Amino acid sequence: MVAGGTRPYGGPFPAPGGDHRIWRNEVAQPGALALLAIGRYDVKVSTGPGGGQVVTAYGTDLGPLDAPARAPVERTPEIVEARANWFGPCPYAGVGDQSGRRERLAASRH
Fold it and tell me: What domain of life is recorded for the organism (predicted)?
């Protein structure tokens, strides 16, 4: 959907040449944990502690902020492991984090 409740392409989903992804978890996930970020990203998929998938994404337009933006995001597996020690294992099959330009992040989280 786009503003106004219409899709620019009225045919089958996805549009020809488009991409369609569905994520499923074995446990319920609060809607507030979902994030849609639109733009160009360098996406990295790795295996975290306990074998879960870790997906990280970095805006390709970060310029000189790229390295400082990546540093905290790269600690995601470490943070998940620390939280597991405090609260128990993460109930989700995967975790992730994203870093992008401030104005894009603000728009994607509203």
Answer: Bacteria
CA-to-CA distance for 26 and 43, rounded, in angstroms? 24
Burial 10-48 (b: 16+ CB within 10 A, else e): eeeeeeeeeeeeeeeeeeeeeeeeeeeeeeebeeeeeeb
Cβ(77)–Cβ(90) below 8 Å: no
Which residues lie across from 48 on neighbouring strands?
Answer: none
Q: Tens digits of per-residue pLDDT, 78-94?
A: 998 899 899 988 888 88
Q: Whole-model pTM above 0.70?
A: no
User: How many residues make up the chain in this entry?
Assistant: 110
Rounded to an integer, what distance in angstroms lies between the CA atom of residue 66 and that of residue 47?
22
